[in-house]
Fold this sequence. Notes:
heterodimer, A: mainly beta, B: mainly beta, seven-stranded mixed sheet, 50% strand, globular
Amino acid sequence: AQKITQTQPGMFVQEKEAVTLDCTYDTSDPSYGLFWYKQPSSGEMIFLIYQGSYDQQNATEGRYSLNFQKARKSANLVISASQLGDSAMYFCAMREGGNTGNQFYFGTGTSLTVIP
Amino acid sequence: NAGVTQTPKFRILKIGQSMTLQCAQDMNHNYMYWYRQDPGMGLKLIYYSVGAGITDKGEVPNGYNVSRSTTEDFPLRLELAAPSQTSVYFCASTLRRVSGYTFGSGTRLTVV
């Protein structure tokens, strides 16, 4: 089974509107971390936001927030007030907290295009 | 600028050749990783290291080797390059397991 599933290959959003990028995960480990990364066309990977499995509140970082629904095993990224510079690939990732603790699993990504 | 430095940025190899992808970080991070990203796909972990002298296999280690003689450097060695190793390779590091990664800018490798 896929550890991380991103079902939206491509998304479009109007500038200044909010957009939600979906991510579901699969793990039996009670301790894990969820991450979102942005990959612009230039290719670098940029860390956006982190949510720990024991965190009570949803993580927020500026215009980014993570809608964490533990029972549904979902960790959707919400970008508010989209900007043209938000156009990029977005990857959801998970790290399990077991004794390996170092295996990151990445989804296949969602391509976001912000329309002026 | 502090961060993760990868060299080279681009490389074309012939089948059967060998090469080393270099990765260095100056943030005193203990954890370092090598990933590959195939077209239209997410990243897959090749090898990782939790500190100098300690390395372990990730999801797709076949055809690769690593070493970690210092905290700063984590080179990835390809022996007998194959077309299946055509990919973009990312090195990453982190201070703590719960932190996000700092990624290098990537190495685009083509094996022909």
